[in-house]
Model the fold of this input.
Amino acid sequence: MKPGSTFGALIGSFELAQFDAEALKRFDLSSAGFWQSFTAVLFLIPIFMLGVYLQNIYFMRQGSTPEPYDIAILVILLDWVLFVLLMRPITGLLGVKENYFGAMTVYNWCRPLAFAFYIPVLAAGAAGLAGSNTLFLLYYLAVTLRSVYQGYILHLTLRLSLWAIFAMIVLDIILGEFIIVVLRQFFL
Done:
């Protein structure tokens, strides 16, 4: 299978979830591969929308207002693009600018699987299989799994210390939360 093919990159994302560093060979780590990696959005959006749907079922069962789908899509797309844009100067400041395209290529292809970590928790909430305290713990377990997965990817591709990688993962999480707050302020 040719490195950088869609199928190869998706298989690579699953292999990276198993901490298989050899999976990097499945990705085109060039600038061309970077631009192609944004097609991963075609896999991310259905997974993300399933998550929003399940979350909204849970919200309605709790008597809360559901998340508007258009705002949810805007949040995920803005989070994705802004993180990739912010990483350009950050990698330059950290002296690993030459690894930027490869790191963001792999990160982009792995986003669909990273968001899939939330689906079992959201499904349990929608089905009423767990109480709010259990769901809270399961949600933070999913956040932890996603963070470890994406941290592993950044560690492999950027070759930075775990503290620098941890800061990048926290930045990604905070950026997503910030975008949600801002968009809710303007659109809800």
Summary: Residues 6-187 form one domain.
